[in-house]
Design goal:
One of its GO terms (molecular function) is RNA polymerase II CTD heptapeptide repeat phosphatase activity. The chain is of the alpha/beta class and 451 residues long. Among the domains are: 186 residues, Rossmann fold, CATH 3.40.50.1000; 86 residues, BRCT domain (Rossmann fold), CATH 3.40.50. Helices cover 25% and strands 14% of the residues. It has 12 helices and 18 strands. It has a 5-stranded parallel sheet. A hairpin with a 2-residue loop joins strand 9 and strand 10.
Length: 451
């Protein structure tokens, strides 16, 4: 019986094979001492290797795991039989395909799989004629052990400013219309009126992330700007290719949606963006980045009355800055997804992201002081909800179970109570945990007057 075009490993056909009269290849024949000819056996070492390979194939589960009803190794459909066992044939061997998908003779793009065979109909092409390249189908992604990663540009991977908006301090620090490109610091002049600063570690981030994800750029900026910026991020086109979506291609000019990516499935998409409100339909796919505000114009844009990094002649650090921290998060999400596919517990990256996020503050119990207005219902406040999403327990009152008091004023009763043997932190501690997906050092978030 055929199952979606897959033949069972080691199965015996129900039809008898007809005898063949074909002679063996004469080049393989050798003459024995008795004058007869025969085909030599392979050396013992090769026989052992062949037997080992047969045993390995028999030991492998017929289908290691399913995502959206498809085996991630061969693409066969999952059909429930009596007792809940999947009625599908084992995966066929694939040239260049190792267990859990290391593709050697092809990649996620233009590689092993160009179409999916539907059991109920004709083959479905893996690409379509559209201005945006079609996302690799789920089968191809999983064979390559990859997911989709959608990246925002401005304030996520870089920061741009018009030269006329440079502050006097920035100009005195050398940022002018005469500023030259500096590949070492990631500073570029895109045209006569625009400066762009790449976020530290962005190239290392893209290089390592590309091994785990098929990556896209999605910006609400214009197409010409988007392509000029991506040229600085990916000069050889090895990370994004033509997978660049700007405001011209977006289905809405002020919002982002996965419907702009032909073939993309939300179960395998991770989004990295500094703005959550532009993704109303895909909050569960989103990892929110803290904004990269290198220039003063961006600080003013978001209402921050602080000196910019360019004014301070400072920058994020390469080895432990925002992108370095986010790369570690993506590694955990990627590993968690494929682990969950193997053990059959989950086949949706959104559920994996929830689980990884809940580990951030697991074991912590937080009480709030002067953070949530008294007239508000505490459980509906964004800070309360965020703290719970990070895995902590929120308490309305300070009691023995509380480990952290989150306060804005060190003089409140709860804050004074926390000084003895609890952690007293300001609300930025919660925000730092949400941006870096790890428990921050409490000593770096003291509660001071006037906060």
């Amino acid at each position: 019986m055929a199952w979606g075009g897959c033949a069972c490993d080691g199965s015996v056909s129900s039809r008898r094979r007809r005898p063949t009269n074909r002679l063996p290849d004469p080049h393989l024949l050798v003459r024995r001492p008795d004058g007869k000819t025969t085909i030599p056996r392979p050396p013992p070492q090769e026989q052992d290797q062949a037997r080992g390979e047969q045993q390995r194939r028999r030991a492998l589960p017929p289908h290691p795991g399913f995502v959206r009803g498809l085996c991630f190794r061969c693409g066969a459909k999952e059909e429930d039989a009596e007792g809940g066992a999947p009625r599908v044939a084992p995966c066929p061997p694939h040239r260049g395909l190792s267990f859990l998908g290391g593709v050697k003779d092809g990649g996620a793009e233009g590689g092993v799989v160009g179409e999916i065979q539907d059991q109920e109909g004709p083959a479905v092409p893996a690409s379509a004629t559209t201005s945006i390249p079609r996302a690799s189908d789920l089968e191809t992604l999983l064979r390559a052990r990859k997911l989709n990663l959608i990246l925002d540009l401005d304030h996520t991977l870089l920061n741009s400013t018009e030269i006329r908006e440079l502050s006097p301090t920035e100009q005195s620090n050398g940022f002018t219309r005469h500023t030259r490109d500096d590949a070492r610091t990631g500073l570029f002049r895109l045209d006569v009126c625009l400066l762009t600063k790449l976020r530290p570690f962005v190239r290392g981030f893209l290089e390592q992330a590309s091994a785990m994800f098929e990556m896209y750029v999605y910006t609400l900026g214009g197409q010409e700007y988007a392509r000029a910026v991506v040229k600085q991020l990916d000069p050889d086109g090895v990370y994004f290719g033509a997978r660049i979506v700007s405001s011209e291609e977006s289905t809405r000019r002020d919002m982002k949606n996965l419907d702009v990516f032909p073939g993309a499935e939300a179960v395998a998409v991770v989004i990295l963006d500094d703005s959550d409100h532009v993704w109303p339909d895909h909050q569960e796919n989103l990892i929110l980045m803290n904004r990269y505000l290198y220039f003063a114009s961006s600080c003013r844009q978001f209402g921050y009355d602080v000196n910019s990094l360019a004014e301070l002649r400072r920058d994020e650090r390469e080895h432990d800055g925002s992108l370095a921290a986010m790369l570690e998060v993506l590694k955990r999400v990627h590993q968690g997804f494929f682990d969950s596919v193997l053990d059959g517990s989950c086949s949706d990256v959104r559920e994996v992201m929830k689980a990884v996020r809940r580990e951030v503050l697991r074991g912590c119990t937080a009480a709030f002081s002067r953070v949530i207005p008294l007239e508000d219902f505490a459980g509906d406040h964004p800070m309360w909800k965020l703290t719970e999403r990070l895995g902590a327990v929120c308490a309305a009152n300070a009691d023995a179970t509380v480990t952290h008091v989150v306060a804005k004023d060190p003089g409140t009763e709860k804050a004074r109570w926390a000084r003895d043997n609890k952690f007293l932190v300001n609300p930025s501690w919660i925000m730092a945990a949400s941006f870096r997906w790890c428990r921050p050092n409490e000593q770096e978030f003291p509660v001071t007057r006037g906060r």
